[in-house]
Write a structure and sequence with these properties.
Blueprint (H helix, E strand, L loop, with lengths): L12 H9 L3 H5 L2 H15 L12 H18 L3 H26 L11 H9 L3
Helix pairs in contact: 1-5, 3-4, 3-5, 4-5
């Protein structure tokens, strides 16, 4: 029985995402925990009035946010690149969670996401 479906591409969305995630992304952006951790600090500062006391965004939250952005774009217009990005953010989000958990498990290293930019600014000014 012949299928009416077009043949699958040789290189899948997951193959493409893997090549990007495990390629030179760390050189370009830093590790997912560091890259997303910076963005988490910025979002925590930006949304501080909306967050519960003491809550801050984590590195893996940023991957989840990026996935939502990509899904929103896919609802508007199909682009293979967005599917590749969803797969890539899923991989780097998992990677960031593993890295953060590993950092938290090592004595003396503190939290994997580090202080927020607002904490650092307050510390510099002597507010704390």
């Amino acid at each position: 029985m012949a299928s009416d479906r077009a043949p699958r591409r040789e290189r899948t969305v997951l193959d493409e995402a893997k090549g990007l995630v495990h390629g030179d992304r760390n050189e370009a952006y830093g590790t997912p925990a560091d890259d997303f951790g910076r963005a988490a600090g910025m979002l925590t500062a930006l949304f501080s009035e909306y967050l519960q006391e003491g809550r801050r965004f984590t590195a893996s939250d940023i991957a989840k946010i990026q996935i939502v952005v990509k899904l929103s774009r896919l609802m508007h217009n199909h682009k293979r690149d967005s599917w590749v990005d969803v797969a890539g953010y899923a991989e780097t989000g998992d990677w960031a969670e593993e890295d953060s958990a590993e950092r938290n498990a090592r004595p003396g290293l503190g939290g994997g996401d580090g202080p927020s930019p607002m904490d650092l600014l307050a510390e510099r000014r002597g507010d704390q």
